[in-house]
Each structure stands twice: as structure tokens, then as C-alpha cells.
């Protein structure tokens, strides 16, 4: 095994066995405060411009059941590095990339996309258990999520829940819903994998939970008096490749560490994403 740069051997084992790992002290308190303030400023500005455009709670009857028929919401912004250099610094943070190198086992790390979800107090929507795989399938399954907590998070304010070890099941048959805005949601059968049987994963402000895109995850309703803010980065190894032409986003395949030797330098491809 290569010498670990950031993770402990226990963290690396947790990643391999359970498909997720909690990381502390990746960012300094100052970096977290800067991220948090920039995040709030961005959401406030975009709320004033187009509140309805930020809505991203899932639709469908299974969601209604999970929400107890409440009127719930999640506000979301994607591609935050296109809005502020603070988030460009977050995705290129050297501690973060050291930790990613440890768990991914490669130096060559590419960005897929970033996003932020705020679950507001009292009406924050839950997420049905799902794999991220069907949203952006890749050949070697190297894709992973870095879920940065910007608030102390527990099941009460909409925290994450995971089925540990579920990444070993491979891609599971997804249920697919398409809403009236033509957005597709993929999740697994809630009878077979209910949120109620998953393992809650609480985290403090600044802590990260990284999980593979095959790891079954979801999150709870936020009925508390506290918001739950997160910033999420999806990464993959350079030697992986998409198996479907889907989920294109700005800065995709930006090389965050190492090299992408698979990138064409042919002039004919210079405008390609
Ligand atoms: O915001 C959350 O709690 C969950 C988000 C999530 O699982 C996803 O977008 O894939």
C-alpha cells in the first residue's frame, strides 16, 4: 500500500469495507468560516433573484410518504466554483486532495461537479435511499462524493444516512421518477432499503463524509429549528470514463491533481467539454 498522506489506516479500511469515511480537520476553522460566509452570501443573492429556481426537493409518491405529506423543500445551487473563487480554492485544497488520493489510490483526480443543498428549519426535505451511480454512470466506478458539513448535523436537522457496505452490491435496480420540470430522480426500492433501517451518520460543522457513488445513502427530514447546509464535490479518477452521455456541467474533468493523459490535444476537440 502507498504511504498515506492524510488518512489513517483505519479510515482507509472504513472506506474499503463500508464505502464511506468521515474526515476531520481537512479544512481549518478559518477556511470553513470563509466557505460558510460565501455560501450564505451566494444563496441570499440568488434567493432574491429567483427563489423558485433554487427548488430541488424530489417529487413523487415515495417522497410524499417519506415526508409524511408535509410541504418540504431543499434549496440548491450547482457549480459553485462558477460563482466564487472561494469554492475554487475548496476543490483544490491540498489536504482534501491528499485525503482523496489516499482513498482513491490514484494521484490523477478529476472534478465531476459541485453542488450545495440547504435544508431549511422545520420543512427540510428528506432524500430517499439512492446510489448516485444512475445519475452519471462510469466504467470503473471510481466516482465519489465529498459531503462537507457547514452546520453541525444529526438526524434531527436532516443528516445523512448510509447502508454501510452497500457499495459492494454494485449498481442496484433504480426506481425512476420524472417530474413536471423533466427532472429525473433515481432511488432504490424504499420497501427493500428504507431510510428508517439505514445507519445515521452525524457530523460536526467542517467535517466531511466521503462516500462512493455506489454507496446507498439518503437523508432525514429537517423538522428542527436549525438549518442543514452542505457543499458537495463529486470526483473521479482520470482513468475512468462515463458510460452515458449525461450530466454535463461546467469545469467537468478539470484536473484537480496529477494528470489527465486521456485528454485529447487535437485542435478539432478544443471546444469540447
Ligand atoms: O442533501 C442531502 O441530504 C442529500 C443529497 C444527496 O444524497 C444527493 O444529492 O445525492
Structure description:
21% of the residues lie in helices and 23% in strands. The protein is built from 5 helices and 13 strands. A hairpin with a 5-residue loop joins strand 7 and strand 8 (184-187). The radius of gyration is 18 Å and the shape is globular. Strands 1, 2, 3, 5, 10, 12 and 13 form a 7-stranded antiparallel sheet that branches. A 4-stranded antiparallel sheet has the order 4-11-6-9. The chain has helices spanning 9-18, 29-50, 61-66, 85-91, 94-104, and strands at 20-23, 75-78, 109-119, 127-130, 144-149, 160-162, 175-178, 184-187, 199-201, 208-212, 217-219, 228-237, 255-257. The chain has 273 residues and is of the alpha+beta class.
Write the layout of secondary structure elements.
Elements: H1 9-18, E1 20-23, H2 29-50, H3 61-66, E2 75-78, H4 85-91, H5 94-104, E3 109-119, E4 127-130, E5 144-149, E6 160-162, E7 175-178, E8 184-187, E9 199-201, E10 208-212, E11 217-219, E12 228-237, E13 255-257
Antiparallel strand pairs: 1-10, 2-3, 3-12, 3-13, 4-11, 5-10, 5-12, 6-9, 6-11, 7-8
2-oxoglutaric acid (AKG) binds at residues 117, 127, 132, 217, 219, 230.
Amino acid at each position: 500500500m502507498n504511504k498515506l498522506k492524510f488518512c489513517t489506516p483505519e479510515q482507509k479500511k472504513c472506506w474499503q469495507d463500508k464505502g464511506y469515511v468521515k474526515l476531520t480537520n481537512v479544512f481549518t476553522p478559518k477556511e470553513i468560516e470563509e466557505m460558510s460566509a460565501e455560501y450564505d452570501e451566494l444563496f441570499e443573492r440568488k434567493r432574491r433573484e429567483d427563489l423558485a429556481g433554487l427548488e430541488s426537493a424530489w417529487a413523487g409518491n415515495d417522497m410524499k410518504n417519506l415526508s409524511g405529506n408535509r410541504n418540504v423543500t431543499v434549496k440548491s445551487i450547482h457549480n459553485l466554483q462558477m460563482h466564487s473563487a472561494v469554492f475554487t480554492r475548496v476543490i483544490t485544497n491540498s489536504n482534501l486532495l491528499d485525503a482523496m488520493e489516499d482513498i482513491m489510490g490514484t494521484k490523477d483526480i478529476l472534478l465531476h461537479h459541485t453542488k450545495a443543498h440547504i435544508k431549511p428549519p422545520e420543512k427540510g426535505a428528506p432524500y430517499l435511499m439512492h446510489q448516485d451511480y444512475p445519475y452519471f454512470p462510469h466504467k470503473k466506478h471510481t466516482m465519489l462524493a465529498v459531503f462537507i458539513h457547514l452546520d453541525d448535523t444529526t438526524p434531527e436537522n436532516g443528516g445523512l444516512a448510509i447502508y454501510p457496505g452497500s457499495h459492494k452490491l454494485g449498481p442496484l435496480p433504480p426506481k425512476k421518477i420524472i417530474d413536471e420540470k423533466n427532472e429525473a430522480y433515481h432511488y432504490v426500492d424504499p420497501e427493500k432499503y428504507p431510510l428508517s433501517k439505514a445507519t445515521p451518520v452525524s457530523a460536526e460543522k467542517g467535517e466531511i463524509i466521503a462516500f462512493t457513488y455506489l454507496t446507498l445513502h439518503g437523508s432525514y427530514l429537517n423538522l428542527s429549528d436549525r438549518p442543514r447546509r452542505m457543499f458537495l464535490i463529486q470526483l473521479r479518477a482520470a482513468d475512468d470514463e462515463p458510460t452515458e452521455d449525461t450530466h454535463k456541467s461546467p469545469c467537468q474533468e478539470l484536473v484537480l491533481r496529477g494528470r489527465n493523459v486521456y485528454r485529447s490535444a487535437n485542435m478539432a476537440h478544443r471546444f469540447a467539454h
